[in-house]
Specification:
Four Helix Bundle (Hemerythrin (Met), subunit A)
C-alpha cells in the first residue's frame, strides 16, 4: 500500500505536468510560440548551466524514481533525523502552497509565461501576486521541491535541489537583465518596490 507522501507527490507531478502542457498548448494557439523560450547564457558561465542541468535532472529523476520505486529513499543516503510526521505535514503544506502559488503566477502572466526568455514581445506584470514578489512562479516551484525534500529527506535529493536552486538564481538574474533592457526605468522602479523572492527583501 502506498503512503500519503507517495499520493501527494503523484498528485503534484500529474497536476504540474498537466498545467505546463495546457499552458504550452494555449500559448502556442494564441501567439505561435510555446512556453519554452530562447536561452541565452554567457559562455564564461557555462559551468553554472551544466551544474543546474545536473541538479534539475537529479531532482526530477529522483521524484520519478520514487513514484516507481518508493524504496529509492533507502539507497540514496536518507537523512533519518528529518523523518518524522511533523515535518511530513510541513512538507505536504509546502507542496500545496507552492503549487497554488505557481498556478496563480502563471495565470497572471498569461501569454507572457515562459520557461526561458520570450522570443516575442512581452509585457511587464506588476499587479496581483507580482505586487509582493517578482518571481512567484519560481518561488512556488522552490517551495514545492522543498516540501518534497521534507517528505523524502535524501542527501542525493538535497544535493540536486541545491544545485537546482543555484541555477534558478542565475536564470532569474538573466531574466532581470532582459527585463531591464526591455522596460528600462519602469522595471528598475518595480525592482525598488518589490523583492526578488520575498516581500520587502
Amino acid at each position: 500500500m502506498f503512503s500519503l507522501s507517495w499520493w501527494v507527490i503523484l498528485g503534484y507531478t500529474i497536476l504540474t505536468l498537466s498545467l505546463l502542457i495546457a499552458f504550452d498548448i494555449y500559448i502556442r494557439a494564441k501567439v505561435g510560440e510555446g512556453m519554452i523560450g530562447h536561452r541565452e547564457f554567457p559562455k564564461n558561465l557555462l559551468w553554472i548551466r551544466i551544474v543546474g542541468l545536473i541538479g534539475t535532472w537529479v531532482v526530477l529523476l529522483f521524484i520519478i524514481g520514487y513514484l516507481f520505486y518508493p524504496g529509492i529513499i533507502g539507497i540514496t543516503f536518507p537523512i533519518g533525523i528529518l523523518r518524522n510526521s511533523a515535518l511530513e505535514i510541513v512538507g505536504i503544506l509546502l507542496i500545496v502552497v507552492g503549487w497554488i502559488l505557481m498556478v496563480i503566477a502563471m495565470l497572471q502572466l498569461g501569454l507572457s509565461a515562459r520557461v526561458y526568455l520570450p522570443g516575442q514581445k512581452t509585457r511587464m506584470i506588476t499587479s496581483g501576486i507580482y505586487r509582493f514578489c517578482r518571481n512567484p512562479a519560481y518561488m512556488g516551484t522552490h517551495l514545492s521541491f522543498l516540501g518534497i525534500f521534507l517528505l523524502l529527506p535524501s542527501l542525493v535529493y538535497l544535493i540536486g535541489f541545491c544545485l537546482f536552486l543555484v541555477y534558478q538564481h542565475f536564470r532569474i538574474l538573466q531574466e532581470e537583465r532582459f527585463l531591464r533592457g526591455t522596460f528600462g526605468a519602469e522595471y528598475e522602479e518595480y525592482c525598488q518596490r518589490v523583492g526578488r523572492y520575498l516581500p520587502g527583501i
